Amino acid sequence: MVRIIPMASTIGPSLSSFKFASASPRLFSFSLSSSSSSSSSSCTIPSRRLSLLHLGSAVPQSHFFGLRAAKLLRREANGMGVTAAGNAAQASTTATQENVLEWVKKDKRRMLHVVYRVGDLDRTIKFYTECLGMKLLRKRDIPEERYTNAFLGYGPEDSHFVIELTYNYGVDKYDIGTGFGHFGIAVEDVAKTVELVKAKGGKVTREPGPVKGGSTVIAFVEDPDGYKFELLERGPTPEPLCQVMLRVGDLDRSINFYEKAFGLELLRKRDNPEYKYTIAMMGYGPEDKNVVLELTYNYGVTEYDKGNAYAQIAIGTDDVYKTAEAIKLSGGKITREPGPLPGINTKITACLDPDGWKTVFVDNVDFLKELE
After folding, report:
1. Distance between CA atoms of 119 and 125, rounded to whole angstroms?
2. Is the pLDDT of residue 123 over 70?
3. Checking phi first, is residue 133 left (phi over 0); if not, alpha (psi -120 to 50) or beta?
4. Residue 191: which residues within 8 A CB-CB, separation 6 or more?
5. Least confident residue range of 77-86, 184-193, 194-203, 309-318
6. pTM of the model
7. Are residues 358 and 334 in contact, defined by beta-carbon separation less than 8 angstroms?
8. Strand ranges inside the chain, DSSP E
């Protein structure tokens, strides 16, 4: 391009001195498109005509180089304009992305409940209330959809993390899979709780004792459907239902996603090379006062069977639309676009994390209206 422009500017003035500089388009076309024809025609054309033909050929070709230069300049200018506009749009998009991700950190978020399916609702309610000390907060039957929900926990739904059990008519068994880990419950005396579970016919899968590599006393019990509960010995806490453990295939990827898209804070991370696993605790507040998401990475395992029993966690947000945008920007998959649910008008959006674990975000104001 740099070489063409001087050539065009140099040839331009000399061309203007020729009277035949404005050669006919036909001749111009001929000289460009049929060089072989021009050479054959030169055998029958007089020398002056031939010289004019060559000059005519030369002039339009020189003119053509000038046109090419002009076109290239215009193209470059247009390209610069497009590039500038593109850069501006990209800068605007980047700023918007940064604004959305920054908003996530300021959004009023809280884990509301965890949802999973059980084969006998009354049997499960009995186990949770009698063995684990939970309260039945509410129960709703949806016969037209052929399912029933029961909400259980250690305090009101508007301030505590609770369990939402789902019973689908006629389905008495589910596959928990290998991806779901356990729920955590903080109790003041693990040994006493274990004895109560045994007395009620519950299954204890790990007797009370210090956690591997630590001093916290824990035990594991199973509910009638096979869901595991880790009992952690702690003092009084405002949030006894304190953990949901899920296994992931890439811990750093999951941490990055949950920090950006969900606004969760990495509270602590612990590697256990002796037992070949690493855990990360993530939450919206201190571990001893809030429920946390415990992500577990087992060395070398990148995929898990999720079964069909565990469903999702629900999280409150001030804006489901911005939440969905942040999830998309962070590489998550939206499975339900943000908007109101038919019939009850509660605004929600649903997504999958990089491992396929589902989360539903619920509008904070609409959620409280639902509880009224």
Report:
1. 11
2. yes
3. left
4. 208, 217, 219
5. 77-86
6. 0.76
7. no
8. 110-117, 135-142, 147-153, 162-168, 180-187, 203-210, 217-222, 228-233, 241-247, 265-272, 277-283, 292-298, 310-317, 333-340, 347-352, 358-363
SS3 200: coil
The SS3 of residue 190 is helix
- Is 220 buried (19+), middle (13-18) or exposed (0-12) by CB count in 10 A? middle
Residue type, 254: S
C-alpha to C-alpha distance for 12 and 19, rounded to whole angstroms: 14
Distance, CA of 177 to CA of 306 (rounded, Å)? 5
Q: Is residue 230 flagged as an active site residue?
A: yes
**pLDDT digits over 179-227, tens only?**
999 999 999 999 999 999 999 989 999 999 998 878 999 999 999 999 9
Catalytic residue among 98, 145, 207, 230: 230
One-letter amino acid identity for 337?
E
Are 295 and 246 within 8 A, CB to CB?
Answer: yes
Q: What is the pLDDT of residues 291-301, one digit of tens each?
A: 999 999 999 99
For residue 60, name the pLDDT band (cuts at 50, 70, 90). Answer: very low
**Amino acid letter, residue 38:** S
Please identify which residue in the block is written with the tokens 């809280």: 110
Amino acid at 306: K
Question: What is the rounded distance in angstroms from the CA atom of residue 140 to the CA atom of residue 149?
Answer: 5
